[in-house]
Fold this sequence. Notes:
The complex is a heterodimer. Chain A has helices at 2-24, 31-41, 149-170, 181-184, 186-196, 212-231, 242-258, 277-291, 305-315, 330-336, 344-354, 357-390, 393-406; strands spanning 46-52, 61-66, 80-87, 93-98, 104-107, 116-123, 128-130, 200-205, 235-239, 270-272, 295-301, 319-324, 339-342.
Amino acid sequence: MKNSLADRSSGGIICAALITIFFFSGPLHSQEDLVSLSVKKIAPPSSLLATDHKYDNGNSISLSWVPSIDDALMNNPIVAYKLYRSSNDTEPNLIAELPPGSSYFLDNGVSTDNSYSYSVSASTNAYEVLSNRTESITPQSEWINYNKKYLFLMVMIISGAIMYFIVSAKRGKELFVRKIAGLEAIDEAVGRATEMGRPIMYIPGIQDMDDVQTIASLTILGRITRTIAEYDSKIFMPVARSLVMTAARETIKASYQAASRPDSYSDDMVNYITDEQFGYVAHVNGLMVREKPATVFLLGAFFAESLILAETGNSIGAIQIAGTARPAQLPFFIAACDFTLIGEELFAASAYLSGEPMQLGSLKGQDVGKAIAMFFVLLGVLAATVSAAWDIELFNNLLDNLNELFS
Amino acid sequence: MRKSSLMVLATVATLFIVSWIFKGIALEDIYESNYLQGFLLTFSAFLTLSIMSFLYKDNPFYKFSEHLFVGVSAAYAMVVGFWTTIVGNLVPRLSESLSNFFQIPYQEGTYNFFYYLPVIFGLMLLMRLSKKHGWMSRIPLAFIIGTTAGLNFIGYLRSDFTNQIAATFIPLLGAAGEWKGIGDFFSNLSLSAGGQLVMMLSNWVIFLGVFCGLIYFFFSREHTGLFGKASRVGIWILMITFGASFGYTVMGRISLLVGRITFLFKDWLGIIS
Lengths: 407, 273
């Protein structure tokens, strides 16, 4: 009993001593110790991997990492991930700050001339913890972008079809092209101008030679001027670009030579006016009412001037044949002109008019492209509909594959 | 010159001078050079009215404005082209002495032999002026046209072909999980904008529009029979689209007209505040 009392009293003394020490010995840890304890509470991001981004010209590196495990906590203390890049083992620089949950970054600020190493930190409002630094990596440039393999396949199929039809046409195979109403009227329009003894005005749009519509327009111009040369009618062509003037003069000259009338050709048939859109329009409008052409061709790339030109042409009673691939301007041509080539018809026109194997083959090849488009549109819509309505795996996979093929 | 023409000219000149003086006096508190500002405002209004006079018929005032516009804009385009393209882009990459001559900073380290190509091509284009060497201008033209065609081929194939096809992969019976059978569809029929019926109709229009539009632009087959009917649907959809586009663009043009009328009545005449 005595022993047990002695044990109890000695136990009490020890407890009292411990309590005294607890109260009088100050805080358990210094401020630095607390911070270091807190730092240890947040795990750094791990497994940082820097790899060369594939199929580019060597200007990007892919970075991926496993986010800090604290990023998934309810009271997430992480406010950002900070990415540091060291170029050729120099001092690291901050290159990006990403939101919590991030695990990927594409660094586009690199070149093949340097090597780079990276580190990523998980950052709270008070401090940040760094991951290990990656090995040095030098980005590589590649010749072929395999991400575009399906696009390449499309190019091959359509180009192959075009070449096949060109060869077929050259071998004498008859290639059918349906009638295009506006083009049927060209000879009639040129003939009308000849009978009336009035000139023909040709406007190739206001874009330069780097626009396919201008190129298509000049191809059509070649065919039209040949008819004009044969009929010994007159043409004048105000243009808004100096290069178009040069190309148009070449085209008309070639047509007059082909029609065995080189002497009738004159450089004055094509005139540069101005690059300024409405300055050009003001002059063309004035020309229309003064020269009173019997026929006006408006073929090419047009913008806000389309309605002004077409209305003026209409007011002088000219027969007007227009065509453009710009959807916003087509309504005006349709409203104010006698015939309008809508979009693709402008490009088909040159092939249709010339009847040359090269151009006819190209047109037929493009039709193959349209047939392919129709087939895949049907297939894609079917897959999307069944997939959305009934969630059938076969159609889900089909839709995914189609999206990959055309994206 | 006829007497009536002289009368019109004298009237316009008088009105111009009167407007100039009144505008100059009105701007006295705003500008130091009030009469110069008054002249500029009056001249702007005169040019605006001259261009608008074309709506009546072609006349000397319109011709004056037209030729002024063409001359100024052509000269301006040439000067801008020279100073931004040749002096601004080419010279500082090719020659330090020329950069110093034009008083622009030489871009050291950007020299590349290929920058001489546009110079050579430009000179070849100018060969058109020579009858003997005019043929040389065809080479840069061929280069421009060929490069344009090649570059645009891929661009248009992506934007107008593959992307367009992918954008048409749309469900015709509503979004995922919406279709729960024909009975459910009719019992929950709603005309709300985000509802299943409206979305279905919208998707059907897109699908039929693209498909029938493609048929219309198919040139290898005569548009007869079922093919012809689909083609007609295609052209109808196109025309409805053009109609909507017409109205939309005309509204935009009206706002331009409002801009000019505001200038005349507010800035020039000061009738509206």
